[in-house]
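Name: AEC family transporter
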Amino acid sequence: MNGLVVSSLLPVVILIAVGWLAGRMRWIRGDSVEDLSNLVFLLLAPPLLFRSMSTVRIEQLSLKPVAAYFVAAGLIFAATLVWRGFNRTGVVLALANTYSNTVMIGIALVGLAYGPQGMVVLLTLISLHSLVLLTSATVFLELALAQEDAPRIEPGAAGRRPMARTVLRALRNAIVHPVQAPILLGLLFAQTGLEIPAAVDKPIALLGQAFSPVALMLVGITLALTPVGQHWRAALLHASIKNLVHPALVAAFGLAFGLRGLPLTVMVVAASLPIGANVFLFAQRYRTSEGLITASVVVSTVMALVSLSIVMALAGRL
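Structure predicted for AEC family transporter:
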């Protein structure tokens, strides 16, 4: 394993381990996790994301690496629906197989490993990640739910869900979001040619610097407090698809698109990130496979401590 992989992953592993210890020792209790999550997503993430994009010109952005990511994700999503069937469970598992933890783990890891240039590539993906995957999942889930409800609804009876309203709400929530909004606002600010005043930039920078350690410790705390239970075998399968199959497909499509170097490397690493916690929120909301999704998130995150090091070492050769 090369020095870049070790130096990038070691702080990540240590901070997650510190959080895990805090959770196991009950220094941070389960009822405090939501408050910590709000601290990370509502207070620390927006300044970091806004500042990272505040100097990026639109002509610097490249969508071809992002296209490789989403083509691979779309293929896995469709294959999962064929495998598990077009129903709520199938859609949620398809989302689990494709939705990366790009914020809590991805930003910290890519920032450490690939610096500001890598962050621009990752944030380009993040600006579309939830918008594309969560909105698509919402539409498919609502269609699956309507299909499941159809036999219980008499022809012409009230009860059909307003699909257009659901899609518009999903789009709005994906854009007006503590992750999406500062990325878009930072990019818009950059196009003005202005600079953030030093007196304002300093506290923004300090808040952004606090994001990575707190977010990674929160991952460890969550791991310590979340039981895997009887679902670990199925969870291992879904974690393997997310952590290994997804990045392999992104690498294949990226090479087919003529991509090389840092943009492709960052996309492959992003695809190898563990399952994002938003998938569990969908499982809760639609009341399907909650235990399996929880176990899959945990197993995928633990597996990533090893699989990420392998993927990063291989991706560095692309």
